[in-house]
Input
Amino acid sequence: MIKTALITGAARRVGKALALHLAGQGWNIAIHYNTSEGEAMLFRDELAKSYPHQQFAIFRADLSRAEEVELLIGQVSLTMGGLGLLVNNASVFEPATLGQTSAEFFDRQMNVNLRAPFVLSGNFARAFQSGVIINFVDTRIVTNQSSFAAYTISKKALWEFTKMAALEFGPGIRVNAIAPGLTLPPEEKGEDYLWKLAEKIPMKRPGGLEPILATLDYILNNNYLTGQLLFCDGGENLGVTN
Ligand SMILES: NC(=O)c1ccc[n+]([C@@H]2O[C@H](COP(=O)([O-])OP(=O)(O)OC[C@H]3O[C@@H](n4cnc5c(N)ncnc54)[C@H](OP(=O)(O)O)[C@@H]3O)[C@@H](O)[C@H]2O)c1
Output
């Protein structure tokens, strides 16, 4: 398998941490971004300086737009000379209950969080005989809470897609999902927000990025693992504690 990864939404936050981690293990990285162009460029330059013998390039695509999604794998492949790993990390996470959700709002969550990974994965499987796909879902998929209704439905469906893709794309391509829990606070909130929520989960603390990176390594190093969902959530999927 060629050691080149495309990570969507890699200019910031979780995606950036995944890219930095993989670069440290010798991977070439295709850094996908949408609006964070300055951060993507800066990050590419930092990586190129730290790892001068590896390849780093940035790719902009609005994953809510079908035509831009369709082109991405081909563009990356042309520039990077192939791909061995696709990480579907980019996501929109917007609150609205079922009753508050308009068709346009629904489409935005579904198109970025489900349609884009669906199409990117299909294009990846058509283009390459072997590789790994990792889809980022969310521990919320075990609940029926509707405060982020369209987001939650999109991630539930992405997990179902993960199993279907593992069945169809094997044996050459393994497809797994990671379900983070309390990892990074939303931009407008601080760590306090996560610590408050953590009072109700078994581990009683936010996880941060380390468990996600450990799970990424586990998936990459276990070549018999496919169609699986790994919760990185301190037990949050089990329900609330007393
Ligand atoms: N953070 C957590 O605690 C947590 C918890 C549970 C699950 N997760 C999941 O883990 C993954 C990473 O989380 P995160 O908090 O790092 O995500 P995030 O900051 O909400 O979003 C990551 C990136 O997605 C990109 N994106 C959004 N809309 C896009 C569009 N239309 N086209 C292309 N890219 C788009 C953005 O890129 P630009 O900035 O370039 O526009 C953004 O930087 C997500 O799939 C999320 O659902 C995270």
Summary: The first strand starts at residue 4 and ends at 7. The chain has one domain: 4-238. The helical segments are 13-23, 37-50, 66-80, 103-127, 149-169, 191-198, 210-221. Residues 103-127 form the longest helix (25 residues).
